[in-house]
Amino acid sequence: MGRWVRSSLAKCLAELATPLLVLGVMAGMAPVSEASPLSQGSGVRPPADAAGLAAVPASLRAAIGRSLGASASAAGYFQQAELTASDRAAGNQFGESVAVSAAGTTALVGANQRHSGAGAVYVFTLRRGTWSQTAELTASHGAPNDGFGWAVALSTRGSTALVGATGHNTLTGAAYVFRLRGAPGPRPPS
Fold first, then answer.
1. Domains of the chain: which residue ranges?
2. How far is residue 129's CA from residue 140's CA, in Å, rounded to a whole number?
3. DSSP of 30-55, one letter per residue?
4. Least confident residue range of 12-26, 37-51, 91-105, 170-184
5. Quick check: 151 and 164 in contact, CB under 8 A?
6. How does pLDDT run across 47-90, given as a tens digit for each residue?
7. Strand (E) or helix (H) holding 166
């Protein structure tokens, strides 16, 4: 290898060392996620490696936090609530997907393993400072392993929800549109 190539390679590695270290440490701290709920046979995520987080020195975690920007608490964020499904059934993968309206008063939370994998999406609304579950959405012809709720989206005002079901119809997939009754726009079919 020529001297110029070695020098260029050394510069590239020096530039990449910090981001790669940050990504490596973050990967050890963060829960495992999969590209698709179908990429694992059971669809169950392994638990986050809590020991991996403890093994990272506090000074390194602080340096990573500084390089990524202010921490959530330093930026003025605080935990407002913890949303949970009213049924609290284990294994539903509640929280697999989430969306919130622009006003921050309506939230969707997907649970793609609910009802034997048919899936469900929970609707929460914020009223007078309190989040409450107001609905559970399911597919009209849901079947086991449909994965309804694997992906969710919510309109700006929270009146229209779009829910993905990647496993529907033998993995062909489907997206379901839900509209809040009484919301302006097209009327639901009779």
1. 3-68, 94-179
2. 32
3. SPP--S-TTSSSS-PPPPP-HHHHHH
4. 37-51
5. yes
6. 444 444 555 666 666 666 665 555 555 567 778 888 888 887 78
7. none
